[in-house]
Design goal:
- This is DNA primase.
- Belongs to the DnaG primase family.
- It catalyses: ssDNA + n NTP = ssDNA/pppN(pN)n-1 hybrid + (n-1) diphosphate.
- This protein is α+β, with helices and mostly antiparallel strands.
- It has five domains: about 90 residues, Zinc finger, CHC2-typedomain (DNA Primase, Chain A, Alpha-Beta Complex); about 130 residues, DNA primase, catalytic core, N-terminal domain (DNA primase DNAg catalytic core, N-terminal domain, Alpha-Beta Complex); about 120 residues, Dna Topoisomerase Vi A Subunit, Chain: A, domain 2 (3-Layer(aba) Sandwich); about 60 residues, Up-down Bundle (Pheromone ER-1), CATH 1.20.50; about 140 residues, Orthogonal Bundle (DNAb Helicase, Chain A), CATH 1.10.860.
- The protein has 25 helices and 16 strands.
- It has a five-stranded antiparallel beta sheet. A five-stranded mixed beta sheet has the order 13-12-14-15-16, with helices on both faces. It has a four-stranded antiparallel beta sheet with strand order 6-9-10-11, covered by helices on one side.
Length: about 600
Amino acid sequence: MIPQSFIADLLNRVDIVDVVGRYVQLKKGGANFMGLCPFHSEKSPSFTVSPTKQFYHCFGCGAHGTSIGFLIEYSGMGFVDAVKDLAQNVGMVVPEADDRIPPAQRAQMQAQSMALSEAMTRACDFYRGQLRGATEAIAYLKNRGLTGEIAARFGMGFAPHGWDNLRAVFPDYEAVVLAEAGLVIDKVDEDGGNRKRYDRFRERIMFPIRNTKGQVIAFGGRVLDHGEPKYLNSPETPLFSKGFELYGLFEARQAIRDAGYVLVTEGYMDVVALAQMGFPQAVATLGTACTTTHVQKLLRQTDNVIFSFDGDKAGRRAARRALEASLPHVSDNKTIKFLFLPTEHDPDSYIRAYGAEAFEQQVHEAMPLSQFLLREASGEHDLSEPEGRARVQFDAKPLLQAMAPSALRLQIVRGLASLTQTTPAEIEGLFELAKPVAVAQRAPPKSGRAMPVGLELQIIRILVAHPPLSLEIDAAGLAAFGHFGAGGAERLAQLVAAGQELGAQGSFAALAQHLKAQGGDYDAIIGEIAASPESDVDSDRAWMVGAIRQLKLDALKLELSQLFAAGLSSDEIGVRYREITSKQDQLLREGEAELSNR
C-alpha cells in the first residue's frame, strides 16, 4: 500500500493544469482554466481546473477529482499506475513492497524500462517512414478502404523486405535491448556455436500497440499476401503483456465516452476499418482470449460493453471466453452485450459489404449477456427430457457461481428456473449460490450516523477545504463535537485525524483523494467545494474557531446544570464549579481577543 504521506507529497508537487492540459485544451478564465469536458459531450466549456485547489470540476456532468483521479478516469489506469505515472514526471520513486531491492538494482530496472520504450518509439518512427514509400502496402490499405488520415491516426507503418533493416535504425544492432523488446530474433545453431540475429517483422503492415499513456509497447504485423502467420505479434516483454492490453484503447477513449459504449473486436483491421466507417469506439483483444483484466479496463471507460466477434466457430468460442471473463464484473448498472454477425463475416467485412447503417442496426440488436448465458447453457440439450434439463443446470452452475449477487443474477436464475421447470429458490439451493437473491429479506438497518447538517456540515466543509485547520482543534474541541451526537462526533474526529496526519502542508486535493479512497461519504461536499470560488482561509479559520469555542461554552453550561442537579454537597459542587467557570472565563477572553485583533 502506498503511504498517504507520499500521495500528499506527490499532489503538492504536480500541477494539475499540466496534467489535464496534456489531454484537454485549456484556456485561462479568471483564477481557473476552462475547457470542454472530456467525460461527456458538450459544445460550451463547463470543465474547470483550479490551480489553487489542484482540482478539476465539471459543472455539466459533475465529474471532479485530483490529478490522480483524472488519470484514472480519463486513461483507465489503476490507482497505482496513475500514481507511478505522476511520480515519474516529477522525479519521485513510489515506495512499494519491493523496497528491499537495492537502489542500484532498482535504478537498473528503471533504465531498462526507459531503454525498451526508446527502442519501441524509434522502431515505430522507422516503420511509419517506410510506409510512405511502400506502394504495394499503400495499395493494400486503400483496397481495404483505409485513408492516409486513419493510418496516421493509428500510427500505422510498414516493415520492408529484408532481414536486418533495423541495423540502419539502431547504432548497435547487437544490443540486448532489441531482443528484450521483441524487435529482433536471435537464432542459435544446434551446436550452440553461432548466433544469427534478424528482424522479427518483415514485409508486414505494422500496427503499433500503445498503453494508456500513449507509449508504444508492442507491434502487430499483417502480411500483404497469403503468408503465414497472417498476423504476427510482439512477444511478451517487460513492457507488454497481451492479457492486459487492448489495441486501439488509447485512440478510442474519447470516442467511447461520446458514443456511450465500446465495441470489442478480435483484430487490428477490424478496429481501423470501423474507425474509418464511423465507429471509432472500437478496440481489439491482442491475439488472445478476452481476460478479466480486459473487462475491468473496459468498464473503467464506459458502462456499456459490446463484444463483436467473427461469425465463425472461432468467433463463437471467443464470445464464450468473453462471457466467462465478464461474469465476475457484472453489476446492475453495467450492460454487456454480444453481437453475432453472419458466419461468413467479421466486423471489417460486414461493414464494407453492407455499410455503416446496417452495422449500427446490428449493434442495437446485440444480444444481452443474460440471454447469451442462457443460450450457452441450453446448448442443444433436449429440454423436454429431465436429463436434458439437468444438463442445462449443470452447464449453467459455474457461470452463475461466477457472478456476484445482484438483481441481474436473480433475473437469470428465474430464466433458468423457467427453462428447467424448477423454482429460483431450488436453483439457488442446488447451486449453493452465496447470499441468495431470490429470498425476500429485510433491508439492512441504516447506519445510526445521520448525514451532517447545519453547524456540523459547515465545520466539515471548512476542514475539507483547508486541512491544516485541523491542527488547531484540541482534545477539548473534539470532546465538544459530542454536541452532534455519537455519529457526528466520530465523523468529525476521523476527519480531524486525517487532516492532522497531512500536517501543515496538507492540501484540499490530498485530503479529497484520501477521503475518496475511504468511500463516497464526502463526495457531495468535495464537489461543492470544487465548484465554489476559493474561500478565504483566515475567515474560515476565525469562523471555525468561534464555532468550536461556542460548542465548548455550551458543553460547560450543560455540565454546570447537570452538576447542580446531581445532589452533591456544596463542597463537592464548589471545586468543580470554580473549574468550569474558570474555563468559561478563559474562552470568553479568547473570543474578545479574537474580535479585537480583526
